Amino acid sequence: MLSNPKQILCISPSMTQRSIIERLAVDCGLRVNFCAGEAESLIHLDNGQRYNALVIAHELADGDSLQVIESVRSSLVHATLPVAFVMAAENPDYAFNALRCGATEVFLATEYSALGTFLADCVERPVQGDFSGRVLLLEDSASHAAFVCRLMEALGLSVDVAHDVEQASQLYAPRKYLIVIADVVLKNGKSGISFVRRRI
Q1: What pTM did the predictor assign?
Q2: DSSP string covering 56-109, please?
Q3: Which domain holds residue 169?
Q4: What CATH number did the domain enclosing 159 receive?
Q5: Residue 39 to residues 36, 44, 176: CA-CA distances in angstroms?
Q6: Which residues make Cβ contacts (< 8 Å) with residue 47, sequence separation at least 6?
Q7: 176 by DSSP, 3-state: which?
Q8: What is the pLDDT of residues 49-68, one digit of tens each?
Q9: Which of 142, 146, 181, 186 is in Cβ range 3.0-4.6 Å of 190 for a Cys bridge?
């Protein structure tokens, strides 16, 4: 089990915003790694470092903040990382796009208290890879099953794969699995939803 790193990554070119986020993070017992743009942030994220959260400004020194969020969500290491998207001014369209790309929450730069609460919650949250238990995966596509298995294993979970409802029924036992993940449409007209419904 990985230890909680108690640190965040802040991607912002604004020294004022960095100072505020650092003060909020320190109040929560968090250290902060800073970078200004997309290129530098991807280096931080690709080096295997674990974080409790990512705080990203709407405007970066280089690149696109939404691209960074999408990269985080497609990463096996950081897929469940809480992401705070911080905007200088209210912009509903940009906020919607940030959430669509995978931001956890959207804040205005002046919402210090709310951002502080977000960071405090992230300290208590298990870091990706701090989980244990078994997952039952009902998936008839080998490539989809392989992807979900890699993601679950990166979280520290063990996975049993069933390729059809009959195999899933043989594997399933109450309290044996922490999570059941089921494909909705299976081959032969079967449904993962009906399998889950019969087990609840």
Answers
A1: 0.67
A2: EESS-SSS-HHHHHHHHHH-TTTTT--EEEEESS--HHHHHHHHHHT-SEEEET
A3: 134-199
A4: 3.40.50.2300
A5: 9, 9, 43
A6: none
A7: coil
A8: 889 999 999 999 999 999 99
A9: 186
